[in-house]
Amino acid sequence: MNREALANFMTVRTKPAALVVAKSNGYREDDGQSKVEPHVGLEFDSAEEAQEFYSAYATQVGFKIRIGQLYRSRVDGSVISRRFVCSKEGFQTNSRTGCPAFIRVQKADSGKWVLANVKKEHNHEFEASGELCPPRIQRKSFPTPRSSCGGASRTGIRSHEDDGPSGVVDMKRLKKEEIDGIVGPIGEPYKGLEFNCANEAYKFYYTYAANTGFRIRIGQLFRSKNDGSITSRRFVCSKEGHQHPSRVGCGAYMRIQRQESGRWVVDRLQKEHNHEFESPTDPSRTVTVASKGYREEGNSVLENLDLVETNGGLSLVKRVRESNIDSDWYSLLLEYFQSRQAEDTGFFYGVEMHEGKGMNLFWADARSRFACTQFGDAIVFDTTYRRVADESEESFTWIFQSWLRAMSGHRPVSIIADQDRAIQNAIAQVFPGTHHRFSAWQILAKEQENLGALLSMDAEFKYEYETCIFQSQTASEFDSAWNMLMNKYNLRENMWFKEMYRMRKSWVPLHIKGTFFAGIPVDGSLKSYFSTILTPQTPPNEFVVRYEKALQQRREEERKEDFNSFNLQAVLHTKDPIEEQCRRLYTITMFKVFQKELLECYSYVGIKINVEGAISRYLVQKCGNGDERNTVAFNASNLNITCSCKMFEFEGVLCRHALKVFQIMNIRELPSRYILHRWTKNAKRY
Which residues, at least 6 apart from 344, have a Cβ–Cβ distance to it below 8 Å? Predict the structure, then answer.
């Protein structure tokens, strides 16, 4: 479709689109206009024109669209194909229904963009036709404000004054006198929008959010490998992530990229939210509050602050550490610590002081400290309730050092904690040799943020990616599958993939399962210890009471488990003496875990594949399922046994494959080293 032909039946508006007016086949609207149906072979001068056409078509039918996947040339990296999808495509939010409707346009040799694929069927009800008309921004004239960044003249959203009145919707705009230092473009963000500096972009997005009804945080940044200068920044919805009960994993964000000219351009944008908006606020007031330190720090505020990794994103942190513990909290907790220490001589607490102010607090009672001697080999560092003072490496280091002192220098074998760079560095410093595993929920959230569109729209990629992550049995298998993905989908230069590969030993199951993590599932989430009773909004005067109540509830659950283990007996299902041995030793919960593996081993077969001295190797596979197979090595001289599935190393319970080989070798009693003390009835919590 050339532009002359397009003009005969379609009125096109640029950024954003207005309604399409069609005179070809299709139904006719009340105003006498008809709409063009998308069909294979339809041509456009640009991908943006195709997007505008599909958006206008969607408006008349009664649905909304989003920008979907793009494909780049492997020769020069240019975009050669784009998908535009129904806004209800995928399942990332509750409002999405997995709708399959889309169009895909492909760049032809002529430079035109041709509609190559179309799916018109939706799996949801349409909204009222015409009510979804995309808004156009009416430009208002403001006196040119003084820029806080200096330099270039104002460049913003293009004027549409000459486009005519059709389809115009007035946006809420801020009066000039209501804007506190906000310069540059004002209106809705879009790709290609330019700013003089990062500050200007932040204030623009802040004002847009205030008008729309959400709040923002400063997200991730990227630096140049050459000189360390910042080349890219992200500003995200305040409900991004899952670190706090108020956060719902919202994917909305705006990313800006620094150009060679020194200006900053919006290069990535996600405007869809997965939550209800709040009432729009007055940005002239909210910006004043939010950027109090902003103006105090001078014009280059973002450059005078550090952005540190926190829970998969990055947060703004002042280089000068400040205390977030107010006097009410400090005095209340200090009084609580002193009273507990008078009752419990084993009660430990520590307070980090900085310039006369309390920065961080740590405490543990005698029972917790003793439990660490029994169960401190695998620990979880959960920051979802309330963050440390300033989320700096110094704060996390102090917390871990305090834990180490309280636990008499007992270092854990493994720790599950967030991916934050500050946490990683603190763990490496205080717990050298401890295997740091990233929180599963955080990995899932970052995958959704970086791969959401690709995973939801490309079933082949999703299958290959998940096979690479979860099915690789050796390091070479994983590397081979990973490299295939990078090459096939042109992801070799993707910064997120580069970083995740570098840190693969902290999240890929293959590299985790060889370390003891007490069987905490690799792909599962952990329930917060205090989540049902304590929240970040708990006032100081209720905190201690609720904390003690939560502690009592958890310990009551432990007492019930102990009582059941000593007074109830699980039913035996075999005559194998190993089953009786383990019922006698394990707690009732752990016996059920072991019993399941024992019963499963009867449906497996073991085949000896080689012998080297006292060591025999067996291929163990499920009967009728040749795909599920593991290698077991058995040493007849000392009864040592290892399996390629690494269940014992990861969970501390022998797997069905090892038990099958013990059956073959007629081993009637498990060596004591294969029954971990922490899983037995005799392991004491106090």
Answer: 365, 366
Amino acid (1-letter code) at residue 657? H
Q: Average pLDDT for residues 71-96, to the nearest whole number?
A: 76
Beta strand residue intervals within 199-261, DSSP E: 216-223, 230-237, 253-258
Pairing outcome for strands 306-310 and 264-270: unpaired
CA-closest candidate to residue 29, choices 38, 39, 19: 19
* In contact, 419 and 309? CB cutoff 8 Å: yes
Tokens of 422: 């500050």
Rounding to the nearest 10 degrees, give the CA dihedral for residues 401, 402, 406, 410: -20
Name the helix (H) or strand (E) containing 467: helix 459-471
* Contacts with 145 (C-beta within 8 Å, 6 or more apart), sequence order: 176, 179, 182, 183
Write out the H or E segment, with its range, that includes residue 499: helix 495-502
Find the DSSP H helices in 267-364. Answer: 283-290, 292-296, 327-343
- Written as six digits, the tokens of 76 are 């020069």
Question: Helix, strand, coil: what percent of the chain each, to 5?
Answer: 35, 20, 45
Mean pLDDT over residues 242-249, rounded?
Answer: 71
pLDDT of res. 137: 30
Which pair of tokens denotes residue 270? 């996600």
User: What's the rounded Cα separation, in Å, for the pair 295 and 367?
Assistant: 49
Q: Which of 210, 247, 213, 251 is nearest to 234 (CA)?
A: 251
pLDDT at 114 over 90: yes
If one counts every other C-beta atom within 10 angstroms of the C-beta of residue 282, the result is: 12
Q: Regarding predicted confidence, which is higher, 307 or 248? A: 248
CA distance 257 to 274: 25
Report which of 31, 35, 28, 27 is spatially closest to residue 11, judged by C-alpha positions: 35
Percent of residues, the chain, with pLDDT higher than 70: 74
Q: What integer pLDDT is reported at residue 189 of this predicted model?
A: 92
**Confidence band of 656 (pLDDT split at 50, 70, 90):** very high
C-alpha triplet 557, 559, 562: angle, nearest 5°: 115
What beta strand segments (E) does 420-495 contain? 435-438
pLDDT in tens, 159-175: 233 333 222 222 233 33
* Spatial CB neighbours of 17, under 8 Å, sequence gap ≥ 6: 51, 52, 53, 55, 56, 134
Residue 77: pLDDT band (50, 70, 90) is low
Q: Are strands 253-258 and 264-270 parallel, antiparallel or unpaired?
A: antiparallel
**Helix, coil or strand: residue 635:** strand
The better pLDDT of the pair 25, 545 is held by 545
- Distance, CA of 590 to CA of 72 (rounded, Å): 52
Query: How far is residue 560 from each of residues 527, 563, 564, 582, measured CA to CA in Å?
Result: 19, 5, 6, 20
Beta strands in 73-157 (DSSP E): 79-86, 102-107, 113-119
Task: Kindly tell me if the per-residue pLDDT of 318 is higher than 70.
Answer: no
Burial 490-525, CB ≥16 within 10 A → b, else e:
ebeeeeebeebeeebebbbbbbbbebbbbebebeee
